[in-house]
């Protein structure tokens, strides 16, 4: 089980089933919208 975490606000974006990867960093939609405005 892995987790995708927002690199800006540290909020959990999504959980996924993958044995090899435990944590990935991305940007959630609320942070994307804030950065684009």
From TrEMBL:
UniProt xrefs under Pfam families: SR1P
Stored InterPro entries: SR1P (IPR025236)
Superkingdom field: Bacteria
Official protein name in the record: GapA-binding peptide SR1P
Organism listed in the record: Paracerasibacillus soli
């Amino acid at each position: 089980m892995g987790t995708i975490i927002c690199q800006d606000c540290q909020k959990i974006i999504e959980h996924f089933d993958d044995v090899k990867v435990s944590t990935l960093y991305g940007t959630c939609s609320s942070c994307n919208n804030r950065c684009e405005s």
